[in-house]
Amino acid sequence: MTSPVRLALLGCGTVGSDVVRLLHEQSEDLAARIGAPLEIAGIAVRRIGRDRGDLPVDPALFTTDALGLIKRDDVDVVVEVVGGIEPARGWLVEALRAGKSVVTANKALLAEDGATLHDAAAEGGADLYYEASVAGAIPLLRPLRDSLHGDRITRVTGIVNGTTNFILSAMDATGAGFTEALEEATELGYAEADPTADVEGFDAAAKAAILASLAFHTRVTAADVHREGITEVTAADVASAKAMGCTIKLLCIAARGADAAGRETVNVRVHPAMIPLTHPLASVGDAFNAVFVEADAAGQLMFYGRGAGGAPTASAVLGDVVAVARNRLAGVHAASESAYADLPVRPMGEALTRYHISLDVADRPGVLAGVAGVFARHEVSIATVRQGPAGGDAELVIVTHVAPDAALAATVGELRGLDIVRSVTSVLRVEGGA
Ligand code: NDP
Ligand code: HSE
Asked: Which domain of life is it from (predicted)?
C-alpha cells in the first residue's frame, strides 16, 4: 500500500462531523478502494473548544487557522464543508492554484462564483468535485458531468429543497396554511431557525444554477435564476390544485430552447407550480429530493433520495474524496469545466409557461366575455374554463395554454383591475402537462 492521501477538513458541523465518522468507520474499505489510506491532516473550525461529542478524532487535529492548514506541505486534498462565500472562496482558490484537489458541498459559492473556482482548478491542475452541493446524497452531478456527456440534455426539473417540500407536502396532506406547516417543519428540525434561504427559494436557486451549468455546458450563476419562494402559497391554492388533480411543488426548472429569434437559449427558474398527480415528481413527499432529467437519446431519467442531513451529505462528500484520491494516485485529473456552449440566459418574461387562475366574479351576462377579452388582448390562449358557485357570485377557474410568462403576468395584472372581477384568488404556474 502506498503512502496516505492526507486531507484538510474545513468545517466540522452537521456535515463535517459525519465525514469524520465515515472516514473512521470505513477506513479499511476506503483504503482498499483507493489503493492508499486516507488520513486527516487537520480540521479547521471556528470554535476550537466546542463540544463535539464522541467524535472519533484526535482533538489535537483541530485548528482555527484554515489557510495555514491548506498551505501545509503534507496536505494533498482539501474538503470544504463550512459554507458561505468568504472566506471559503479564498481558501479554495489557494488550494486549487497550489494543485491540491478540492471537494466541497458549498452550493452558495459554486452558484455565485463557480467560474473562479473552475479557473483556479485549471490553473493548478487540480480536481474540483462538488456532488454534495446539490441534492445531498443523490448521485446527480456525476451523471450530468460524466454519464450524460454523450447526450444532449434538454430539461432538468427538480425538487431540490427538502424543507420546502416538507412544508408543501404537509399543506397538501392536512390543508394547513403556510405558517402552520412551517411551524411543524421547525419543530421537527427540518426548517432552520432562520428559514429564509429555504422558503424564499435562495437555496433551490443556487442548486438550479449548478444543475443548469452542468446540463447545458454554460456558466449559469444564481443571479441568472428567476426565483420565487413558497411564502405566498395559500391553503386555497393547495385546494385549487387538488380540485385539478394536481399538487403544488417548489420546482427548479432548467430548460434549453429557441427564443423568438430562433437563438438557442437557456431559462432557469425556481417557483412553486402545480403538477399533475401522475407526474413522477408529484409523489416525492416529506423532505425528499428528486430530479427529473430529459435528454434527446436517454429520454427521461429520475434521481431520488435524501437531499440533506449529515450522513447523506457526507456520503456524497466521501464519494468525491475517493474519486479525487484515486486521480491523485494515478497522476491524472478529471476533465475540467465544460462551458463551451456559452448559451445566453433567456429572461423569465420570455419563458413559455402556463397559468392556472382562479377568480371570484359577478355572476351575470357578459362577465365571461369580459374576462376572456383580457386573455385575448394579451394573446394568451385559454385551454379550459370551469365555473362554480362562490357565494352570490361565481368562481371561474381558467387554465391557459403556454404563453410568454410576461404576457401571462400582464393578463393577471389587468384582471385584478377589472370591475367584474371581485378578486383573483389564486395564480399558479402549471408544469408537467396538466
Ligand atoms: P454547519 O453550520 O453545521 O457547520 C459549519 C462548520 O464550519 C462548523 O464546524 C464551523 O465551526 C465551521 N466554520 C464556520 N466558520 C468558520 C471559519 N471562519 N473558519 C473555520 N471554520 C468555520 O454547516 P453544515 O455542515 O450544515 O453545512 C456545511 C456545508 O455543507 C454548507 O456549504 C452547506 O450548504 C452544505 N450542505 C449542507 C447540508 C446539510 O444537510 N447540512 C446538505 C448539503 C450541503 P464550529 O464547529 O467551530 O462552529
Ligand atoms: N436546506 C436544504 C434543504 C438542505 O432544505 O434541502 C441543504 O441543501
From this structure: Bacteria
